[in-house]
Amino acid sequence: MLILAVVMLCVAVLLAVAFGLAPLGAVIYAADPPFLNTLQAGIQRNLGPWVWDEALLPVLESPSWAVPASLGVLFLAAGLWARRG
Amino acid sequence: MLIRRRRGWETPEAHATPEALVVGRRAALGAGAALFAAPALAQQGPPIAPAPDPAFTAMRNPRFRPERDITAMREAATYNNYYEFGSHKGIWPAAQRLPQRPWTIRIEGLVEREREIGIEEILRIPAEERVLRLRCVEAWAMTVPWTGFAMSELLRLASPLSSARYVVFETAMHRPSMTGLRQSWYPWPYTEGCTIAEAANELAFVATGMYGRPLPPQNGGPVRILFPWKYGFKSGKSIVAVRFAAERPVSFWERLQGNEYGFWANVNPEVPHPRWSQATERLLGTNERVPTRLFNGYGEFVAGLYTGLQHERLWA
After folding, report:
1. How far is A69 from chain B (nearest CA, A)?
2. CB–CB of B209/B145 below 8 Å?
3. pLDDT tens string B168-198
């Protein structure tokens, strides 16, 4: 768990250095312009519009490093808690 | 001795429910249903389209024969592509939050005089009704009675310079209602473009109404453009700017997915979309599949526009 935490935090740092505060969506769009449009159509038409608007869009609007950083902190906390237990 | 065997469906008289109880139960159910239905009816939400308005009724131009049944208004007004509101077909309730007044259109670029035109001035242009087929690139189609005027009237109003070769149409950006604009990485605003010759073609249309009503926001209200011989994404909605340019513009979808959505995008059943066939189309309402026609069946009006352009990617 602690190794996973370190990996995630390293990914977060790399993304922060490379892209600064750019939203995750912008980073994905720059890498593959049609990808998010196809994903949005698939999700909104098959699962429901709200899944995209309420769940995925906030993630895509956040800085690209936010997701790996959050996961890193979560794994770190879980790993430390497990070691203490 | 008579032995009577009851068949399965026969019920002893004693087991039958008394009539008074049945009538009373029906009354109680009716009252209950009314009790539940009242709040539901009160919360039905916005109507799908504005009420019929004589100001948006005009004489039908017989030159444009639909050759198909008109699509029911409910279908045309509740099955929409409008990317600013989402990538699904049920955007009509969200679109009701797009304010329709005040509304102005900027005339800019290579024109004699840049200016803003109010919707009131647009609505003073003599209108006609045209029943036109609209073919979506997603292989569905509808036939709608639009109210409006030939796009050549808009060109006359704008007075473009002789150096102008292209027209760019820009869609509104209203952040409070358009959740799609939160996706800041896309090249908003939505723009579409055409050549001056295409805009001046008699089939190119500016719509301000449909079915004898003001144009609903989900269909591009209060004012949109229509190129019935092209795939639907070329017919921009809720237009706020018309720009005249010397260089060919790169439109929203062309920038996003140029291999699938090009500049010309004329309807052609023999040129498939990279992910599906364009040979047939599904009619909204009946779901009947019919063969797609070259230029959406409007070749007699527009085929001449593309003479000498065979080297261009005219069909996607």
Report:
1. 22
2. no
3. 999 999 999 999 999 999 999 999 999 999 9
CA distance A38 to B280: 23
Alpha-carbon dihedral angle through residues B242, B84, B66, B211, given to the nearest 10 degrees: -90
B311 inside 8 A of chain A by CB: no
For a pLDDT cut of 70, what percent of chain B falls above it?
A: 86
Which chain A residues are Cβ-neighbours of B88 within 8 angstroms?
41, 44-45, 49
**Residues B257, A25: C-beta atoms closer than 8 Å:** no
Q: In B, which residues are within 8 Å of A45 by CB distance?
A: 87-89
pLDDT at B43: 53
Domain annotation for chain B: domains and CATH numbers: 54-306 (3.90.420.10)
Determine the pLDDT at residue B1: 53
B89 chain-A contacts, CB cut-off 8 A: 45
CA distance B192 to B237: 10
